[in-house]
Amino acid sequence: MMRPTAVFAALIAFMICFSPAAVGLRSVRSLLPGKTIMLIQGREPGGTGALRTQALIPFLRKYIPGEPIIVTQFMPGGGGRKATNYIFRNAKPDGLTIGNVGSGLVANAVLGSTGVEYDIDKLIYLGAANSTAQYVFNSVAKLGLDSIDKLRARPGLRVGAQTVGHDIYINGRLFSWLLGLKEPKFVTGYSGPELDLAMMGGELDARANIPDTILQRSPEYIEKKLVNFHAIIQIPKEDRHPHPAFAKLPELEASPSRSERRKS
User: Fold this and answer.
1) 120 with 150: CB under 8 angstroms?
2) 183-240 confidence digits (pLDDT tens)
3) What structural domains does the chain harbor?
4) What are phi and psi of 187, to 5 degrees?
5) Cβ–Cβ < 8 Å for 31, 95
6) Residue among 122, 108, 115 at smallest CA distance from 16
7) What's the predicted TM-score (pTM) here?
8) Which of 17, 101, 150, 217 lies at a C-alpha separation of 20 to 30 Å from 139?
């Protein structure tokens, strides 16, 4: 069993809807040759999670007994709630349906979010794509918010995310609250790449993102200074990001709290 913090930190969590004790490895070996496994992703295609999952599929085929065919189906909605609910309640418990969602799987269940129909303790976790999690908060450079004080002074910033309950949404809310943004507006309904386009197109002002995603998908943000970076979430905290654009960012929990700012 993974530690709760490790589960929450995982950007990709795989789950399966049958019990190995009930099915048995021997029967799984006899069932899977020539079979097709449906891998349901709780997101839109094209984002970081989808690319990581596609990279893992060859290894899943190699190590799952029988080397079954693996087909991906995207089921976005509720930060993984729709996909997880389907796996928990509707998928046949035959080992031929597995799921892949982000850390919203845990956060939504722990926070008691509306629409959670699964019991998180009855899911079987197959693993994660990484053992650390880092998120940064950035705003469009054209706004001129090149310091946290300027960021806090700007009212009504439009903070983008995929869906309510998505890990990008949850972390965007965390940044906004702990940094003390003034009346932020949370705008959802985008895929990951669409969020980037919306920021550059003037539809959004800020977002939370994964540093490695920025380096891989939007290096011009750094090279052309198209965005300003304000703070970072590090799990574990001692794991500093090696890139200069992120290495010296203040860790979110080290930023002054709302109560501390009121006292000052």
Assistant:
1) no
2) 999 999 999 899 999 999 999 999 999 999 999 999 999 999 999 999 999 888 888 8
3) 4-128 (3.40.190), 133-263 (3.40.190.10)
4) -115, 125
5) yes
6) 122
7) 0.76
8) 101
β-pair type (13-16, 97-101) = antiparallel
Residue identified by tokens 């960021």 is 151
pLDDT in tens, 251-261: 998 765 554 55
Residue written as tokens 């993974």? Answer: 2
Place of tokens 């079979």: 35
> Do residues 13 and 100 touch, judged by C-beta distance below 8 A?
yes
**Which residue type does 37 have?**
I
In contact, 8 and 108? CB cutoff 8 Å: no
Looking at the DSSP assignment, which residues form a beta bridge with residue 251? 232
Tokens of 16: 């399966």
Task: Specify the amino acid at residue 133.
Answer: A
Q: Are 83 and 42 in contact (CB under 8 A)?
A: yes
What is the residue type of 149?
D
